[in-house]
């Protein structure tokens, strides 16, 4: 995943991974997770904090300091449109990486691995404490970071609306 690439780049002295470059270009709002006390000035700093926060969550989950992460499925008979979603959480040291997966949506042949990975990242950023206004993803950190993954870190194209990607985000 691009999380690993970010840390490999940092280890080599490259402080600007492709995902970071893309996210910084587009993210303008809600740069702070709810647990972060200081105001984050820009998306460059927000990206570093989010990757370190995800690392904290992975460690907490791996060493049993958080509830066991669960993959849940929608109730029988329901067909939610989202492929992957999660409930909001706010403590990277205690919250699990639990998500709800819609197997019917996952089986769609038009959804690439990059789109599904971006959807999972979006869900995990919700678990990490990032928020967005209902239905608003463009310019919001949590939406732009996920959409960068979905676009394989390429620039936005006027011919491809954000809704191509945001239709799968919760």
How would you characterize this protein structure?
The chain is mostly helical. It is 43% helix and 4% strand. It has seven helices and three strands; from the N terminus they run αααβββαααα. The protein has helices spanning 2-11, 18-26, 43-62, 103-106, 113-128, 141-150, 163-166; strands at 71-72, 84-85, 99-101. Strands 1-3-2 form a three-stranded mixed sheet. α2 crosses α3 and α2 packs across α6 (141-150). The chain is globular and about 50 Å long. The model has no long low-confidence stretch (mean pLDDT 89).
Summarize the helix and strand pattern as letters: HHHEEEHHHH
**Number of helical segments?**
7
Task: Choose one word for the global shape.
Answer: globular
Q: Write down how many β-strands occur, each being a DSSP E stretch of 2 or more residues.
A: 3
C-alpha Rg, in Å? 15 Å
Q: Give the low-pLDDT segments.
A: none
Reading side by side through the largest sheet, how are the strands ordered? 1-3-2
Helix percent band: 40-55%
Mean pLDDT: 89
Distance between the termini: 21 Å
**Main β-sheet, in a few words?**
3 strands, mixed
Q: Report strand %.
A: under 5%
SS content category: mainly alpha
């Amino acid at each position: 995943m691009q999380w690993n690439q970010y840390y490999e780049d940092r280890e080599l002295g490259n402080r600007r991974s492709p995902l970071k470059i893309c996210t910084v270009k587009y993210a303008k709002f809600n740069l702070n997770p709810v647990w972060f006390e200081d105001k984050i000035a820009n998306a460059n700093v927000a990206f570093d904090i989010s990757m370190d926060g995800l690392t904290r969550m992975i460690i907490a989950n791996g060493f049993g300091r958080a509830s066991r992460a669960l993959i849940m499925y929608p109730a029988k008979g329901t067909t939610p449109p989202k492929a992957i979603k999660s409930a909001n959480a706010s403590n990277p040291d205690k919250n699990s990486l639990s998500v709800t997966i819609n197997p019917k949506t996952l089986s769609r042949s038009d959804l690439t691995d990059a789109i599904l990975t971006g959807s999972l990242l979006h869900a995990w950023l919700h678990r990490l404490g990032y928020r967005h206004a209902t239905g608003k993803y463009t310019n919001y950190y949590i939406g732009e970071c996920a959409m960068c993954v979905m676009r394989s870190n390429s620039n936005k194209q006027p011919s491809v609306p954000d809704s191509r990607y945001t239709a799968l985000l919760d």
